[in-house]
Design a protein that fits this description.
alpha+beta, three-stranded mixed β-sheet, 2 helices, 7 strands
Length: 137
């Protein structure tokens, strides 16, 4: 099915390994003067791709980086109307004269060394073919 595939870019990943006793695991978004900051603390790449899939994009995100371990990462980008199911994040508009951050695809490659590409990919899905009300026991 249609998906976004996450791979390591040509120059290699630019990720900071999380410290063993570092920050608690967390992934989120916050406004910054040039756009939106997405951050992950002490997060494995599959958790990051799950966040992208569930909140940012309208299709699955498949991890093909081969990266293991936990990372602290930040990426600053300018969202477009295809993200967040077309909803605004409610973040303030950029001030006039401020150079906006690149789009998410460019930002991930420049800042994280990760490449996100739209492709057809094999994705696990769950199909429910029958449902019944529970019986009284």
């Amino acid at each position: 099915m249609s998906a976004f595939v996450l791979t390591v870019a040509k120059g290699g990943a630019k990720l900071k390994a999380a410290q063993p006793n570092g920050n608690l695991h967390g992934i989120g978004l916050q406004p910054v003067p040039t756009g939106t900051l997405m951050f992950a603390n002490n997060a494995p790449i599959p958790a990051f791709t799950s966040f992208l899939q569930s909140l940012v994009f309208d299709r699955p995100v498949v991890d093909q980086t081969g990266l293991t371990g936990r990372y602290d990462l930040t990426v600053t980008f300018t969202p477009d109307e295809s993200m967040f199911n077309g909803h605004s994040l409610g973040f303030p508009k950029l001030d006039e004269g401020v150079e906006p951050a690149p789009n998410l695809f460019e930002a991930m490659q420049q800042q994280l060394g990760l490449k996100l590409t739209p492709e057809k990919a094999q994705v696990d899905v769950l199909a429910v073919d029958h449902v019944e009300k529970p019986s009284a026991n």
